[in-house]
Structures are given as C-alpha cells and as structure tokens.
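User: Sequence recovery, please. Input:
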C-alpha cells in the first residue's frame, strides 16, 4: 500500500510555514509519495514492494513502465495552463538532487526572523541589517514578528517584491547576505535541517550545499605567506603550508567543523530516533565554498584544506569558488585561481590522494555588469574546465559570448561536464530569462544539465519553483525534466559506478538490464547496487519515478 503518506508541499513556491511544519499533509487529490515505503536503508530491498504496491494503488493501472511514463507526460502537458495542478505535479515529481545551493541563501527571511527574535537580535531601521543583541541601539529595533517593519525586512533580506530602480536586482540580491548574516552565522545546524526538510517536501533525494569550509587551514596559509602570490609561487607556498607544524591540527579542526555540521542538523531533526522523519533520509553532502574575492593566500589555503578534508571524510565532496564573478578582484585573480586548482588537481586528484571534485561558478556574467573593457565573458567557462578541472559548471549563462561558443558547447558535452542551471537566480541577478537563457543551446549540444536553486530563500523559490520556470519559460517537457533529475545524480559528487551507461537514453548497465529499472532487481543488479552509493541513489530515484508515474490519473 502507498500508505502512511508523507507528502510534498502543494506549491512549487513553498510557503515557509508549511516547510517548517514538514509539509506532512497531502493536498486533496494530489499524488502521494510514501518515502518511508520506498526509502529503505538498502534501496534494493524495497524494489519489489514498490513495483507491486503502486500498481495496486493506481486508479487505472498502466500496463508498462513506458505506458506510465507516457501517462505522466500527457498529464504534464495537459496541466501546463492550470497553475494549481502544475504546482502540485511539480512539487511531487521526483527530482534527484539539488547540486548548487548556498546554505545561508537557502533559508527564507521569515525563518531568519524567527531565529533573530529568539536570539534578541536587532535590525537597523534604515539599512535593515541585523545586528547582534549586544549591538542594539537607537538606530535599531528588535526583530519584529509582523507588521510593516517585518515586511520591509523580508524585502531587504530577499527578492520579495523587488522592483529594479536605483538599485539593480544584481546589487539587491548580493546585498541580502550581509543583512541576515548575523542570524545565519549563528544557526548553521538549523539551516541544514531547514534545507533537508524542504528537500524532502519536494521529493528530492540528494542535496549538495555550500558553505565556508577550510577556514582553519586558510587562516594558517594567510599567516604562512606574505606579499603577492603568483602561479609560480604555488609549489613553494604549498610546501611551506604543509610543512607547518600546525598543518595537521588545522586540517583536523576543519574536519571537525564538517562532522559537527552533519551531527548537528541530525540532532535538530532527531534523526537518530527509532522513526526518523523523511528529511533525515535526504542524502546531504557539503561543498567547500571559498570566496573568490578574498585574499589569495587564504583562498589557496582553503582549497588545500578542502582537498585534505575530503581525504578524511566523505561528507565533504567538492569545492567551489563563490562570490560575484564580476567583482574586480574576482576578475583580476581569475587565472591565478585556475592555476591553484590545476596545481591541486595534479597534487591530489591525479595520484588519487583525494576524492574532492571541483564545481565552479563560471559564466555568471553579462556585459552589463562587467567592468569596462573586461573580456571575462569570453573565456571563464572554458578556463574553468580546461585549467580549473571543473567537473561541473555553475550557471554558464554567458556561454554564447565565449570565444567559439559552439566548440565550447561541444567540448562540455565531450567532457561530460554538467551545467547547474539556476533560472530564478539568473533572472533576478543578471536579468537573463526566457529565450535569452542558453539552456536550449546546452540541450541542443547534448551538454548534461540539471536545475538547481542557488539561493532559494533569497529568490523566494525552491527546486519545484525552478522546475516551474523550466516548464513555463523554457518550455521543457516531462521527459526533459526527468532526464535532468537523472543527470543530477549522474553528476553528483558521490562515489561509485553509475546505474546507467547512458542517461540520455536511460540505458542501464548490463548488470541491471533485462528488467524494470527501479523494479525487482536481479541478483547481478543487486551486486552492482551494493557496490555503488551513486547507483543505489539512482535506483531509488527510479523507484520514485515508477511510483509517481503509476499514481498519475488516467486522462
Ligand atoms: Zn551560486
């Protein structure tokens, strides 16, 4: 039976209160997803159960998985003009993973205000920047619970109601982080809990979230190096840093941050109880976010710290350079940062000393926000891949302004580099939307893509909201969304072989061929799944697609 429903939220643009409450009640008539029934610790154990039970529950059973998929596709097409039905469909559809998410930007302003009140935090009545309780003054007021000041803060801390005028969306978006920073900095574990709660509410299986990691090694590196830093200095700098008597202890301290974050959010959610809630079953991994506008010695140290941490814990899987790519410091240091990543790739990745992978914000640029004379929008993506060894690209909005874009798109496809597509963010920060967005070009060249949220709290969106933009503004069909969900797990920074030989054609590996993928696994397939964390999650996604598609009403 599909019973004991833990249901997704009704809207793609999820109300915060609903998320906080766990979105535990299905909206009337919505297809239900029973995470508990299909979400066992060993996914393959649940395979047969899903196959048999969902069919029994379907209002009108569809004969084959292909027929069920077609029914879901038909349903999707039929409800594109029905906002409520589309929201429900897109909230419930299995989504794989969110691969591009900044932790502090993922939380809604209302939640930050809840925490601000509990902390006694005040908010400046002119700038709307939060200040610690000890800094409350005549120019601040206590964080409110409602009213016009509350509404003003929500607008200042997010894109809620934003209208471009003297201030651009670009500047308003990036300014939000400093305004809620005092609150965000004090609630890491609750933020992580909020993230997986929202993910579970939208039928996501996996999240990679970014926050500032590796700071202990970064600080040590800044102390170990003085003066300017060039690419030629990197071997000597690395030798000095790793020979520092404090190096090992700093790495240990950085690993402890990662471990504490993992344990902390699971404590918030009581994940070690006998019956942990669905958010506890969302696989969460961390990506070290290193600000590209910081000091270069600190940046290098944090990157070293990330590679070292990943040797010790599988909780951290990647590193990413963040902060505005069009910042003058980010632009002037871009080649040095790529050289750092190339150096560390040869030091750690080639000899298989560290499993850390690289994803880079690249091509989050438009000419309008570049300094005069800058050519950054002609080469950042290509350099990120060719020199920075980026396995994934974040945004890639300006790909068509890169030198020889067709060749670059083909190269991305040939290298199997996935682009993390963040439609709301690109719309709000860069004013790139609709046909001006290069998503169609990526798809036309066979570049793998996956939708991601970037900063869902600031954007007032969610992964379901990104699906909605893909459906209504990019005109993607059901099977394209399904392929993107599959690609999100194919390109997740998880260990293990894939379930697929081809995601584009949904062709499983030989061990899992011959039956229904996500159905009853053969002995050979069970062996394959047992040996791969990635394949197990991919199998679970297929289970959820079977359940979702079989639960769709017949036309
Ligand atoms: Zn980002």
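Assistant: Recovered sequence (555 residues):
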């Amino acid at each position: 039976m599909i019973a004991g429903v833990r249901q997704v939220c009704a809207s793609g643009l999820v109300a915060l209160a609903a998320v906080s409450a766990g979105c535990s009640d299905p909206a009337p008539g919505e297809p239900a997803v029973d995470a508990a029934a299909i979400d066992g610790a060993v996914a393959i154990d649940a395979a047969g159960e899903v196959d048999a039970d969902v069919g029994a529950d379907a209002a009108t059973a569809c004969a084959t998985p292909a027929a069920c998929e077609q029914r879901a596709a038909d349903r999707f097409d039929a409800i594109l003009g029905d906002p409520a039905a589309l929201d429900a469909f897109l909230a419930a559809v299995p989504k794989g993973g969110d691969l591009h998410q900044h932790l502090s930007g993922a939380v809604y302003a209302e939640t930050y205000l809840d925490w601000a009140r509990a902390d006694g935090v005040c908010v400046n009545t002119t700038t709307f920047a939060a200040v610690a309780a000890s800094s409350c003054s005549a120019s601040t007021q206590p964080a409110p619970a409602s009213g016009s000041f509350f509404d003003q803060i929500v607008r200042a801390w997010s894109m809620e109601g934003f209208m471009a005028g003297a201030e651009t969306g670009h500047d308003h978006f990036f300014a939000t982080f400093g305004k809620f920073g005092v609150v965000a900095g004090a609630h890491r574990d609750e933020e992580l809990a909020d993230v997986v709660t929202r993910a579970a509410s939208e039928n996501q299986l996996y999240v990679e979230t970014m926050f500032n990691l590796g700071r202990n090694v970064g600080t040590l590196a800044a102390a170990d190096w003085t003066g300017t830093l060039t690419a030629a200095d990197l071997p000597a700098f690395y030798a000095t840093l790793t020979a520092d008597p404090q190096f090992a202890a700093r790495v240990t301290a950085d690993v402890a941050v990662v471990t504490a974050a993992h344990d902390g959010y699971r404590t918030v959610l009581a994940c070690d109880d006998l019956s942990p809630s669905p958010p506890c079953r969302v696989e969460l991994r961390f990506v070290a976010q290193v600000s590209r506008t910081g000091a270069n010695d600190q940046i290098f140290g944090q990157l070293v710290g990330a590679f070292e941490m990943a040797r010790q814990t599988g909780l951290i899987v990647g590193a990413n350079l963040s902060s505005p790519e069009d910042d003058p410091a980010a632009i002037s240091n871009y080649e040095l940062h790529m050289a750092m990543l190339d150096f560390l790739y040869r030091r750690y990745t080639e000899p298989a000393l560290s499993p850390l992978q690289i994803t880079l914000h690249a091509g989050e640029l438009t000419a309008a926000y570049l300094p005069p004379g800058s050519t950054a929008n002609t080469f950042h993506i290509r350099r990120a891949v060719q020199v920075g060894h980026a396995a994934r690209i974040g945004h890639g909005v300006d790909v068509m302004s890169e030198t020889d874009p067709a060749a670059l798109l083909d190269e991305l496809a040939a290298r199997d580099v996935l682009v993390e597509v963040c439609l709301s963010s690109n719309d709000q920060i860069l004013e790139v939307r609709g046909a001006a967005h290069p998503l169609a070009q990526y798809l036309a060249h066979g570049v793998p893509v996956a939708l991601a949220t970037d900063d869902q709290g600031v954007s007032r969106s969610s992964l379901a909201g990104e699906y909605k933009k893909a459906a209504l503004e990019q005109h993607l069909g059901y099977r394209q969304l399904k392929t993107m969900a599959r690609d999100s797990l194919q390109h997740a920074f998880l260990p293990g072989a894939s379930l697929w030989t081809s995601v584009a054609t949904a062709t499983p590996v030989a061990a899992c061929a011959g039956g229904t993928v996500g159905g009853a696994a053969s002995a050979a397939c069970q062996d394959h799944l047992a040996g791969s964390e990635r394949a197990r999650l991919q199998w679970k996604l297929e289970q959820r697609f079977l359940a979702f598609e079989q639960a769709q009403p017949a036309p």
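Residues 107-185 form one domain.
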